[in-house]
Fold:
Amino acid sequence: MPEPDTARSQFERILYLLPLAAREGGASLEEASRALGVPVARIVRDLEEVLARVYYHPTGGADDLQLAIEHDRIRLWTTGEFKRPIRLTPRESLALALGLRVLAAEKPGRRRAALIELAEQLDHQLTTAPAEAFLAHYALEGEALPDGAHLCDGEAIRGVILDASRANRRCRINYLKPEAREPASRTVDPYAIVYANGFWYVIGAADEGETIRVFRLDRILAVAELEHSFAVPDDFDATEYMTGGRVFRGNGGTAVVVRYSASIGRWILERGDGIEQADGSVVVEHRASDPRWAVRHVLQYGAEAEILEPPALRGLTARTALSVAEAHAEDLPDALT
Structure:
């Protein structure tokens, strides 16, 4: 009779897996399976459960773990220690936001406003997972799905795409782009499944062409594995689509050069690549496909960070900061107005 799979045994496997996958070139899933005496599916599940406990971070921050699963190999990158509390699930966020509003109704003045602000921040976090929010709507409305597919949750979608990636099989997906009102049907050859900045992504050739695209898994509403097989190009490397804790679309996006003050420079260097200046400040070049990310990223550091290039984003950041200050002028101390 096989021994039960306890929390302790899983923890021991994870302690073995993480340094193994972090070696140069990563590790083979089959190798890890043989060494630990468990099926490959259990190995993948262990890694998924580690990443499901993603650490909550301020807007613009990067995750401490990045994972790529390419066919039968796993590769892990880590940029720091695990010091943050776990991230809330969408249902937990919704429940907590409701609780904060109940408390706010009993509090006066600034305390009430602070609780409402926290509740609104949780509401904003919920908007980062549109698939969960729209799933029931599309099921009720009977939207067209890929042949052989059905609406399913994020874990099931990830499982289908992982299996297709390992078997070199093309997938058809219903994908809801940011700010789009309706999902679009796309095909993707899943070269690699990666995890970065709190989200899972699939990277591969899209729409039966040679263009490599990145799709965020929580924006996939439905998926079906197709009969068509594919070959991963010899020169494909998932790390070329990951930088600074983020995933970006190949050569897409804008180079954003940010200078961080000497007071936080050492901390920035510990989290990634950067060039230290003579005065102790640090200059880092990021890739940003969304200018709003660059603005949020810099403003979270207040006076300790500034965009050097491009000039347009530098100006946008200044205007955004000014508009925020004007909107909250009445809450600022007299010395700052």
Observations:
- The chain has a mean pLDDT of 76.
- The radius of gyration is 22 Å.
- Residues 104 and 111 are 7 Å apart (CA to CA).
